[in-house]
Specification:
Layout lengths: L2 H15 L3 H7 L12 E5 L6 E5 L4 H12 L4 H10 L5 H8 L6 E3 L2 E3 L6 H9 L8 E2 L2 E2 L17 H23 L9 E3 L6 E4 L8 E4 L1 H4 L8 E3 H16 L7 H6 L3 E4 L19 E4 L11
Helix pairs in contact: 4-6
The protein binds zinc ion (ZN).
Length: 301
């Protein structure tokens, strides 16, 4: 595919959709800053003001190769190994390189000359709608008033290619999720009941894909007067998100990472009731996250 031609076509498509200046401001296809999505580079906006994104000749072909490898049946772990062996820079390092800044940096309390690909890094790249040229906020496509995706660059993948890729990744990740459940739960030793200070343990909930982390005071022969319990998927995604934020990482998070960084989440007992809002996610007012010990504040590191 001729990407320059595709970029031009997208440019026309964008201009045709713009009907008023309010919309123009939002949807003119400007790149507003932040990490340049992998496969792209910053380029002056055709209007003469601001920036948009164009395929990065250095990495757009890497994206294509990765997608081919996924379709060929390679695991993300195997693809990550291949990229590391080939010396391909991770998104963060490529971004730094394009900006003329040094590669690598500090992570998990250690200095790295450059970062390495992991299945987590790959998963993030492959699941981002920025591959379709979309503007993305919190992993989701930003849409204009009419519901159309806001484009900030030429698509590296057509909509159909992107969808097929997501289905494939979804099928594979379901497989690994089932496998993990047979080993130690992600948050064992990390989550604690605020009522008794004891560890919470994973418990299966019959008929549900998720379970719960529960206070086990009674199993220890103790009495807990405000025994906490929370859905495992909510508690896990909350903890992983807070951890990633605290250490500025986007890699896959393991129990070893959490314990090694002294991550602790205290869960207090929920009130009964709570209405429909309870069904959408964890009540974070019940959760206290800490990392690096009881008094450390991750934002101070
Ligand atoms: Zn308890």
């Amino acid at each position: 595919m001729d990407l320059a031609y595709a970029a031009e076509q997208e440019g026309h498509a964008i201009s045709n959709r713009l009907t008023d200046s309010h919309q123009a401001l939002r949807a003119a296809g400007r790149y507003g800053g932040g990490l340049v999505p992998f496969g792209y580079q910053k380029t002056p906006h055709p209007s003469g003001s601001g920036w948009c994104l164009a395929p990065d000749p250095g990495t757009a072909s890497v994206v294509r190769q990765i997608v081919e490898d996924v379709h060929a049946g390679l695991s993300l772990v195997a693809i990550a190994r291949k990229l590391n062996e080939a010396g391909v820079l991770v998104p963060r390092d490529r971004h730094a390189q394009l900006q003329g800044r040094p590669l690598g940096g500090r992570r998990h309390g250690r200095d790295f000359a450059h970062f390495r690909w992991t299945s987590g890094t790959l998963s993030k790249v492959l699941r981002s709608p920025s591959l379709m040229g979309h503007r993305v906020h919190r992993s989701q496509t930003v849409r204009d008033d009419e519901g159309a995706p806001v484009l900030i660059g030429a698509p590296l993948l057509a909509d159909g290619e992107f969808r097929a890729l997501q289905e494939l990744l979804q099928t594979r990740s379901n497989g690994t999720r089932c496998k993990r459940r047979t080993t130690t739960s992600l948050l064992t030793g990390v989550v604690h009941c605020a009522g008794c200070d004891g560890r919470m343990y994973f418990a299966v909930r019959k008929g549900y894909p998720h379970g719960d982390y529960v206070c086990r005071a009674s199993a220890r022969g103790d009495v807990c007067h405000s025994a906490a319990a929370m859905r495992s998927d909510w508690l896990e995604s909350y903890t992983v998100a807070r951890y990633r934020e605290a250490v500025a990482t986007d890699v896959e998070v393991t129990r070893k990472d959490l314990l090694g960084n002294a991550v602790r989440v205290d869960v207090s007992k929920g009130r009964s009731g709570g209405g429909p809002a309870r069904l959408t996610g964890p009540d974070t007012s019940r959760l206290t996250f800490s990392i690096g010990g009881p008094t450390a504040n991750p934002r101070d590191n």
